[in-house]
Design a protein that fits this description.
Strand content: 5-15%
Radius of gyration: 19 Å
Distance between the termini: 22 Å
Number of strands: 7
Structural class: alpha/beta
CATH class of the largest domain: Alpha Beta
CATH architecture of the largest domain: 3-Layer(aba) Sandwich
Number of domains: 2
Helix content: 40-55%
Strand order of the largest sheet: 5-7-4-6
Number of helices: 10
CATH topology of the largest domain: Alpha/beta knot
Shape: globular
């Protein structure tokens, strides 16, 4: 998933890398106009199907709404306390949770700035490529290629352990839409209680709360329970479905 990609050529290079690894679900969040971009098709070098099928979203929240696992690719240290995985570790985790990768996504930020802290806070873990610390710069296509390579190689490994059932009925993870519904519910009640005050500290407080909840990796049932807790603390009787998606 490419967030605010600036150049059509980089989108095409990412699509080419994805198809090399057998990946086809490309999502774009607020790509720089124009889109569709003929330069993306030219740079895709035969991976036209990936570019043409790419889904475009205005907001990151909408782009990740159906996902149950989310990883943020970043090369910069963050103040956020969150697991940090290599591409191989992340792919192994994805394969164990969903052998076909369904419901899992990797975020890549804009070419110049990368993902911001609010975007990283929404992910379950950060994904960082261990490279020469003196020079670890990657372009967008290279970064996507490293993930795609690990994905393809993991699929060829006949000795890989079978799925662990982490996303079974009992332990099913919420979709991002369900998790964002909890964020909005909690933040609405905290605003009503004047907890997120003064205004200049609100953004940082919200980011920390979202990062804390995402890092805890709650199950669907736990998210429903937290909705009930928030509502009860606000002095109202909780009804199933209230505050969620």
């Amino acid at each position: 998933m490419l967030v605010a990609p600036q150049l059509g050529e980089n989108v095409g290079a990412a699509a080419r890398a994805m198809l090399n690894g057998g990946l086809t679900d490309l999502r774009l969040v607020a790509p720089r106009p124009p889109w569709p971009n003929p330069r993306a098709l030219a740079a895709a070098s035969g991976a036209d199907s990936v570019v043409e099928a790419a889904r475009v979203f205005d907001r990151l929240e909408d782009a990740v709404a159906d996902l149950r696992r989310l990883y943020a690719s970043t090369a910069r240290p963050r103040d956020l306390r969150k697991p940090v995985l290599t591409p191989r570790e992340a792919v192994q985790q994805i394969r164990e949770a969903a052998p076909d990768g369904a419901g899992c996504g990797v975020l890549f930020g804009p070419e110049r700035t990368g993902l911001d802290s609010d975007q990283v806070a929404l992910a379950d873990a950060m994904l960082t490529v261990p490279l020469n610390p003196a020079y670890s710069s990657l372009n967008l296509g290279q970064a996507v290629m490293l993930i795609a390579y690990e994905w393809y190689q993991a699929g060829r490994d006949e000795t890989a352990e079978p799925p662990s059932g982490l996303d079974s009925e009992r332990h099913r993870r919420p979709t991002r839409a369900e998790l964002h519904g909890l964020f909005r519910h909690l933040e609405s009640e905290l605003d009503a209680a004047n907890f997120l005050w003064p205004p200049h500290t609100r953004a940082n407080m919200v980011r920390n709360l979202r990062n804390f909840i995402a890092r805890a990796s709650p199950t669907e049932q736990e998210v429903r329970t937290l909705h009930g807790v928030v509502t009860a603390l606000a002095g109202r009787k909780w009804r199933r479905g209230e505050g969620g998606e």
